[in-house]
Amino acid sequence: MPPIGPAALLAAARDRDPGRPLVTHYDDSTGERVELSATTLDNWVAKTANLLQDEFDVGPGSTVAVALPVHWQTAAVLLGIWSCGAAVLDTAAEDDGGLTGADVVLASQDRLAALEEEDGDAERLGLSLHPLGAGMVGYAGPARDFALEVRTSGDRFVPYAPPEAGAPGLIAGGLELSLGGLVETALELAGRLGIGPDDRVLVDAQVAAEAGPVAWLLAPLAAGASIVLCRYPIAERLPERAAAERVTATLGRNVDGVRELGRTAEEE
């Protein structure tokens, strides 16, 4: 059964060059750097998808709310949801009614307390976002710990029910895209921004959060490019980082000597 939607983009990246760094994540507030090859990201995605399918019955027709920052673990969560054939609800989850329609909620630990005050029957998974994937510390609420749960999940994912390209894939405010529509939109955006297969794109996490997952995750993936995510970036460090990571383009940041996606030569 060939993968459908965003899962197909990840499979293509893995098959094309399994050892290539696909997502590199920096957090300048903690000093962490995490690098995932296509194979490693694929493994995290498979484990996430198996956890959601086996423990929470996530599949076609399910809706999973994601209350997470732009992060390497968020990339795995999003692709895991789409691998199940489910829809991602990308919303201000703390707002009244923000979780309406969600079957499962995945949230960072610092947002769990607020989300637990919301009504609804959605089951909750909390993420510590620890750089090494460790579990939550100091949490005693009802949410299950993603890091502890995902460790025992399988490394190969096969959906119980085959996803369909026309099934809902993303619900974000007034925007709704099917699984197939996510790929089409990502390909169109990659072409419009000028992202190519040899690109290594430095992405500002704050800008990425505003732009949404099609822009920061799926467009580079659709183009065959790799991503360098920068959370709380220190501007003075970016030129050296861009050189060390062989960055060829940026999204949401201007770095001397590196082209900025979405801007013409005259604008630069």
Would you give an account of this structure?
With 268 residues, this protein is α/β, with parallel strands linked by helices. Helices cover 35% and strands 22% of the residues. The chain has helices spanning 6-16, 38-56, 72-83, 109-115, 146-150, 179-193, 205-211, 213-223, 238-244; strands spanning 21-27, 32-37, 63-67, 87-89, 104-108, 123-127, 144-145, 168-172, 175-178, 200-204, 226-231, 249-251, 259-260. The strands form two sheets. A seven-stranded mixed sheet has the order 7-6-5-3-4-8-9, sandwiched between helices. A six-stranded mixed sheet has the order 2-1-11-10-12-13. A hairpin with a 4-residue loop joins strand 1 (21-27) and strand 2 (32-37). The chain starts with 5 loop residues before the first helix and ends in an 8-residue tail after the last strand. The model has no long low-confidence stretch (mean pLDDT 92).
User: Whole-number radius of gyration?
Assistant: 18 Å
Largest sheet: spatial strand order: 7-6-5-3-4-8-9
Number of helices: 9
Quick one: biggest sheet? Answer: 7 strands, mixed
Q: What overall geometry do the principal axes of the alpha carbons give?
A: globular
How confident is the prediction overall: mean pLDDT? 92
Helix content: 25-40%
The H-and-E topology, N to C, reads as HEEHEHEEHEEHEEHEHHEHEE
Overall number of strands: 13
Strand proportion: 15-25%
Q: Assign the structural class, choosing from mainly alpha, mainly beta, alpha/beta, alpha+beta, or little secondary structure.
A: alpha/beta
What are the low-pLDDT stretches, counting only 5+ consecutive residues below 50?
Answer: none
Measured distance between first and last alpha carbons: 45 Å
